[in-house]
Amino acid sequence: MAVQAQHLLSHAFLPHHDVLGHPFRALEGAAVCGAGGVFLDELGIAGCAPAAGTGDAVFGGAARSELTCNGGGEYDDGLLPRKRARVAAGLVECGGQQGSLVLPLAAPPPQGQPFAGDARTRAVGCGAASTSGRAAASGVLSQLYHQGVEIDALVRLEVSDDKFEEEAARNGGIIKNGREILFQAFNWESNKQSWWSKLEDKVTDLAESGFTSAWLPPPTQSLSREGYLPQSLYCLDSCYGSLSELKSLLHKMHEHNLRAMADVVINHRIGTTQGSNGMYNRYDGIPISWDEHAVTSCSGGKGNKSTGDNFDGVPNIDHTQTFVRKDIIEWLIWLRRSVGFQDFRFDFAKGYAAKFVKEYIEESKPLFAVGEYWDSCEYSPPDYRLNYNQDNHRQRIINWIDSTGGLCAAFDFTTKGILQEAVKGELWRLRDPEGKPPGVMGWWPSRSVTFIENHDTGSTQGYAYILTHPGIPAVFYDHFYDQGSSLHDEIAKLMQIRKCQDIHSRSSVKILEAKSDLYSAIIDEKLCMKIGDGSWCPSEPEWRLAASGDRYAVWHK
Predict the structure, then answer these.
(1) Which of 312, 372, 375, 478 is catalytic?
(2) What is the CATH number for 452?
(3) Which of 66, 152, 200, 347 is catalytic?
(4) 39-60 pLDDT tens trace
């Protein structure tokens, strides 16, 4: 993924601070999309009347998803934690789009977080901002991972018949046939233009290139331009474009058999009116008009304690409430049946228990679902380099997938973090002590969504790795469209090879070499590849070169 925030898995994080203080005390008098202006079109899809009122914005700073940051500021070397620091960022409006929210001047903007300058600070932050050190849960499924067992059979009957796989998908399973290739169809700057219309022009190319699903940015009205501070969930006029533009995009995607993935942000929600404690944690005047009991007690509400990590500074949704889950399920079904989304990405999945993700998938039945279960990799003193063994890290992601009943895949942050360091001349990292791939890919490949660092200079090596290996690969918009036709064509060629050789999420891997300057492997006995500066090629005459580029080559029989 790709906007993939400046994914920071090769760096530890700063200890997170509530830099917002109590921002929602400053929202009094703000005009909210939907306050008397929500309407339904002829298809029952909500739109928003223009927000009224003017004023100076003092609250912005969209909470940036670990998979959706592509900032252009001073911290873009990848050391600034995204979802851990949220600062004022100017006027929160959508360039003339309906659904803007303008805030009155009430207080000076909060100060930004200090730069994480040294390795020790980053490592200390890693411990503060993650669950590192927590004992891995044990269970029937988890016990099998270390034995090399692909455990789909324990989640649902495992057969090779594609018709069964498709039926399983329709019944709420996440994998149609294990041959998905995802496309992250935006970056952190996409909200500054008519993005839905721009994407519509690229649908044909995306479909012809072989993508099966395009992950779109959050479509709902939001306090932040990027969409990650949602408010009126049924309002689909956003900074990415109008409702009609979104409908036109989805229609064209359906025509080209390119599935639309909705970015589902349900960990937190911005209120429209103040509750009893002065925080904006009531949702009066808009659809899904919850009161303070829908907000966790950990974030200023009257609900129950959170079942996951707290997202500081905003009202966190209490998923233990039956009425909350009922409303969320109805909204997800509406996104599927009325709007036209087919796949779901669950943002900030650490914020609420995985059992709720399981329930939402079972009830709304997306064809594919993936969760953003971000967790920092592990580092050791004195230099705080990335540890070779990241088994605890991937086990935590495995445990989360397990807790969804295996219905939801997860972004393979372990593979991403290791691969980011490996392409810098440490390719030995790509083989674990058991001779397997070192990420989630090595233990539960059919639930691993693999991706690479968005500004990684080794991107060609990274794509040569994830597009030839098991797991479900994802390609970042900027790599495919904004870094020249050469990279676009190289990625498309690798995708074509993957498809022609029928490499899929459960394909087998035989690692042949893994040393500083060379990694090579055979996948399904159909495809052979190498990355790195080291010289290598298969010795058997039946192997034919299929693609090559900067420090990579791929062969097939």
Answers:
(1) 372
(2) 3.20.20.80
(3) 347
(4) 334 344 444 543 333 333 333 3
